[in-house]
Amino acid sequence: MTPTPQDKPARLTVGVIGAGRVGPALAAALALSGHRPVAVSAVSDASRRRAEELLPGVPVMDPAAVLAHADLVLLTVPDDVLPALVEGLAATGAVRPGQLLAHTSGRYGAGVLDPATRAGALPLALHPAMTFTGTPVDVQRLAGCSFGVTAPDELRLAAEALVVEMGGEPEWVAEEARPLYHAALAIGSNHLITLVAQAEELLHKAGVQAPERMLGPLLGAALDNALRSGDAALTGPVARGDAGTVRAHLEQLRIHAPAAVPGYVAMARATADRALANGLLKAELAEDLLGVLADGGR
């Protein structure tokens, strides 16, 4: 839904606490919509350089000073740091009534901001479902990016409007569903990188000179097919019930990459379960296949 003009927040001064890869990019995107970044908190040399690149001229301040200068403060710190940061800022009286506080953690909803909410802050959880590079390209890549949004009902329109102004698409996630939502993204994104890296390493060992060139079209097509067709896109020896091929895979993995065996077995079992449930894998072939997986191909 595109917010109407009366739903859009007024032009805001914006502060960032935590100049990692995410915060400066979001603030830069808000600047393109007319909001004004005024302060950023950055500790390491790398974070200071990143802030200067994406938010040139915006002064670096301590977190309390960022809160003092900004109408909207983006809390873009690691998940495990966020609760203590919020408690500390609230305890020191740095939070101002009516101030918008938006964190970008996928794990947490608006509840983690309760200490600040009790001090009068307006809590928002705005999680961009995107990997960030920490460079200006991230600002352009926000176009069409989905955000997991959680906020009190009275702030829903404001939260969605801010996401739209950053170029994103708001997707409402209930408070209690945030951990499950984040787990889904971790499986789809973080684990995918591990799988691709493992595939590249194995292709190198098999003598392939350019694994990335070989994998690009294959994985691109697989991802497109999976997004379009779900489980119906399953192919390969597990979905076909080719126990002999799976046994050969495991034999070679035990020789050349034993650390990859548990992951292969776990994913093959999950694939077999999904293929069986969707009628792609015949029950009579599944027995031999699952037997191979049970003994690791021995």
From TrEMBL:
InterPro entries: 6-PGluconate_DH-like_C_sf, DUF2520, NAD(P)-bd_dom_sf, OxRdtase/DH_put_Rossmann_dom, TM1727-like_C_sf. Gene3D superfamilies: NAD(P)-binding Rossmann-like Domain, ProC-like, C-terminal domain. Residues 8-128 form the Putative oxidoreductase/dehydrogenase Rossmann-like domain. Residues 145-271 form the DUF2520 domain. It comes from the Bacteria. This is Uncharacterized protein.
